[in-house]
Amino acid sequence: MPEYKQFPLADTAEGLTEAEILGWRVKPGDEVQVNQIVVEIETAKAAVELPIPWAGVVTELLVEPGQTVEVGTPILTVDVDPHGAEAPAAAANGSAPAPRQAAEEEMKPLVGYGSKNVVAKRRPRKAAASEPTAVEPAPVEAPPVEAVNGAAAPPRGGYVPLAKPPVRKLAKELGVDLRELVGSAEGGVITREDVRRAAEPSAPEPVPTGDRERRVPIKGVRKATAQAMVASAFTAPHVTEFLTVDVTPMMELREKLKTSPAFAGVKLTPLAFAAKAVCLAARRTPDVNAVWDGEAGEIVYKDYVHLGIAAATPRGLVVPKIRDADAMSLVELARALDELTATARDGKTPPEAMVNGTFTITNVGVFGVDTGTPIINPGESAILAVGAIRDMPWVVDGELAVRKVMQLSLSFDHRVIDGQQGSQFLADVGALLADPAVAITY
After folding, report:
1. What is the largest CA-CA distance in the chain?
2. SS (H, E, C) 351-375
3. What InterPro entries is this protein classified in (predicted)?
4. Are 208 and 277 members of one domain?
5. Structural domain of residue 278, as residue ranges?
6. So which residues are the catalytic ones?
7. Is residue 139 part of a domain?
8. CATH number of the domain that 392 lies in?
9. Is 40 inside a domain boundary?
10. Which of 114, 191, 194, 203 is deepest in the core (most CB within 10 A)?
């Protein structure tokens, strides 16, 4: 007889509490295999594809695309014994159990899933005039919806054509329902052009004042960032210090290294020099790489640097980490930075790459900004903002000259780092950027 199992939303990263259903890869009636991708979700950290741990036939999708659900909530029902013996026509009380009434079982762990045990929560059921009594639910086909781009679109409920996170973001901004589009790219993938075409009005109309505003739900990366920044700003007493540095020698060394065979094909940026300087300076001031543990009443010193790099992406601000950055050479850091930023820009940073950092750099200079007062990432004690490099007048050996000048700003947790330690660290970073040869003294 049929055996129904409910697939709960898994904890795909440490601390995950909820996620948004971006789109289903299956629909009721589809056969699935073990570890087949069945749904794409968006967490506070990344877009993630979830595999299913059983083989069987999909009987019901319990959550609509666009809906945010808590970890442990059942999102899919599967008949794992679709070819077994038929169920009795009626139970003792005259009706057969519905799929959702089947026992909810703990999901077997899969590769990439967190180990956190969760208790599945039953989604509230909508009131209905009558309940089906058949063991296998009869799929109800929604009437075809005429797509905005002129083609027949898939039903609004259930399966959603694929679209990358930047395309989903654009659709939200333009007020386009992706469920009403048919993608023009291979495999039915929705493109930016599809969304823009759908957003074009059939005829120009006057726009009332009330329509000149739009509301976007606070969720995903934006929600997580806001919560983290508020928690940090009102928990850790921030102190911010500033330093202006003549980085002409660093820029000259950069041009020289570009011609070196060891740096062939490597994108060597000022950020790579800043990353190396932070790792070196942290050796002399380990306080900046420590963290306050209020519950344990301890300050935890880290003998490694997991360097976070704040990156602006179509999904919002993310901070992926370079693991053991302190053990890397300059060329290795440059390669790691290039790979990190490319992966983040494409929205492919895995959730595990964005946790357990020890220090963060935010490169505001890439936007032409000189400096700022960055907020410390939770779980860390300091963050360095690197500003734009500008040609500015500078006094060299008593004479005025035009030099390459950069501004640095360091925010630190005053519970862990005193002014002396913070100032020493910032001065060390500045000295290493002003004269990279100082590194041999560390």
Report:
1. 99
2. HHHHCCCCEEEEEHHHHCCCCCCCC
3. 2-oxoA_DH_lipoyl-BS, 2-oxoacid_DH_actylTfrase, 2-oxoacid_DH_E2_comp, Biotin_lipoyl, CAT-like_dom_sf, E3-bd_dom_sf, PSBD, Single_hybrid_motif
4. no
5. 223-441
6. 414
7. no
8. 3.30.559.10
9. yes
10. 194
d(CA 351, CA 107): 20
What's the whole-model pTM score? 0.59
220: left (phi over 0), alpha (psi -120 to 50) or beta: left
Which one-letter DSSP state was computed for residue 190?
Answer: B
Does position 396 have pLDDT exceeding 60, yes or no?
yes
Q: Write out pLDDT tens, residues 74-84.
A: 999 999 887 76
Sequence-ordered alpha helix ranges (H) in 285-398: 330-345
339: three-class secondary structure by DSSP: helix
* Final residue of a structural domain among 85, 101, 117: 101
Domain count within the chain: 3
With cut-offs at 50, 70 and 90, classify the pLDDT of residue 149.
very low
Q: Is residue 184 part of a domain?
A: yes
pLDDT (tens digit per residue) in 184-214 = 877 678 888 888 788 775 544 444 556 788 8
My answer on whether 280 and 191 are in the same domain is no
411: in domain: yes
pLDDT over threshold 50, residue 95: no
CB atoms within 10 A of CB 397: 5
Whose tokens are 């980085």? That residue is: 247
Mean pLDDT (the chain) is 80
CATH number of the domain encompassing residue 55:
2.40.50.100
Query: Residue 114: what pLDDT?
Result: 39
**Could you report how far apart the first and last alpha carbons of the chain are, in Å?**
71
pLDDT, tens only, 10-64: 876 655 678 888 889 999 999 999 989 999 888 766 778 889 998 999 999 999 8
Euclidean distance between CA atoms 336 and 338, whole angstroms: 5
Contacts of 118-123 with CB under 8 Å at 24 or more apart are 118/8, 118/10, 118/11, 118/71, 118/72, 119/72, 120/6, 120/8, 120/72, 120/73, 120/74, 121/70, 121/72, 121/73, 121/74, 122/74, 123/62, 123/63, 123/69, 123/73, 123/74
Give me the helices (H) in 73-219, please: 165-174, 192-199
293 and 392 in one domain?
yes
Q: Which of 75, 101, 127 is the last residue of a domain?
A: 101
